[in-house]
Amino acid sequence: MAITAGMVKELREMTGAGMMDCKKALSETNGDMDAAVEFLRKNGQAKAEKKAGRIAAEGIVKTVVKDNKAAIVEVNSETDFVAKNDEFQGFVEAVVNQIVDSEAADMDAFMAEAWAADTTKTVKDALVEKIAVIGENLNIRRFEKVAADNGCVVSYIHGGGRIGVLVVADTDVVNDDIKACLKNVAMQVAAMSPKYVSRDEVSQEYMEHEKEILLAQAKKENPEKPENIIEKMIIGRLNKEMKEICLLDQVYVQDSDLTVAKYVDKVAKENNANVTVKKFVRFETGEGLEKKVDDFAAEVAAQAGM
Questions:
Q1: Which is nearest to 175 in space by CA: 200, 152, 202?
Q2: What count of Cα atoms within 13 Å lies in the side-chain half-sphere of residue 75?
Q3: 61, 96, 163, 275: which could join 73 in a potential S-S bond, CB 3.0 to 4.6 Å?
Q4: Helix residue spans in 193-252 (DSSP H)
Q5: Which residues pair with 75 in a beta bridge?
Q6: Pick from 172, 116, 106, 174: which is nearest to 140 by CA?
Q7: Contact status, residue 152 vs residue 174, Cβ threshold 8 Å
Q8: DSSP for 280-296?
């Protein structure tokens, strides 16, 4: 398969590896992008695991908590200026308040249901009208609903809507201290972006895959070391990774002497409560989307006929 400059550029943006390393990886994997990422990781050339799409699109994330249920939504706009506009903000507020009570399980069903503010229209109709009023393309990109049958839900919005988080917990005591604790946990999720609540959620398939990557790295870095030493190295590195991607294992950012699990246990004991963090949802505006990059100088030159 012919390896194009665009493919090399995409792989470089995903991994941070050098141009020639990316070209070699694509050649070795016959242009398979996922396999090329694996090739670079195993050879220690990927500087970091980056998401395939850059976090660049504009818009906001909003949340709403209603009794023991909650919703979170991301609505995108073309510019940050519109994202801060009262008209846009009000529309997103209406969207998230409708979602929390909606029976829709996916975006297609939600877009087809009646718009709560005017039931003669669908949600899609309301979106199209708002696009006409604001003058920018808008997109209700994603939503999620959660419920706490045996506890409570808290929400946290960071950066005026850049990041939104919901945290669901089972608890036999719901008071201001417990809610404040869970709000702090939500802030942790916003800041540290874990993938899982605990190690119990990590699949065996994921663990085996990471072991394979770490084994290749360790053998390349320490070819002279015996297998039993390399095995111990892998276990150590895997444990370190788990402490980064599992919320309850993370160091609590407001008190580095505690993990998040120990912080929650501490507050629970102080309130004679049993608290278990069950789930979190984290949306970051524009995550995985690529923002249009305008060349202002070129635009001015084109308009001037230069």
A1: 152
A2: 26
A3: 96
A4: 204-221, 227-245
A5: 60, 140
A6: 106
A7: yes
A8: EEEEETTTT-------H
Q: Which residues contact 4 (CB under 8 A, 6 or more apart)?
A: none
Q: pLDDT tens for residues 10-66? A: 887 776 677 788 888 899 999 998 888 888 777 655 543 443 333 337 999 999 999
How many angstroms separate the CA atoms of 261 and 250, rounded? 8
Q: Which tens digit of pLDDT belongs to each residue from 250-303? A: 999 999 999 999 999 999 999 999 999 999 999 999 887 766 554 445 544 554
Tokens of 196: 């899982």
Q: What φ, ψ does residue 294 adopt, rounded to 5°?
A: -95, 135
Residue whose entry in the numeric block shows the structure tokens 């370190």 = 240
Phi, psi of 252 (to 5 degrees): -70, 120
Size (the chain), residues = 306
Phi, psi of 121 (to 5 degrees): -115, 160
Backbone angles phi, psi at 43, to 5 degrees: -95, 10
To 5 degrees, how large is the angle CA 140–CA 149–CA 245? Answer: 65
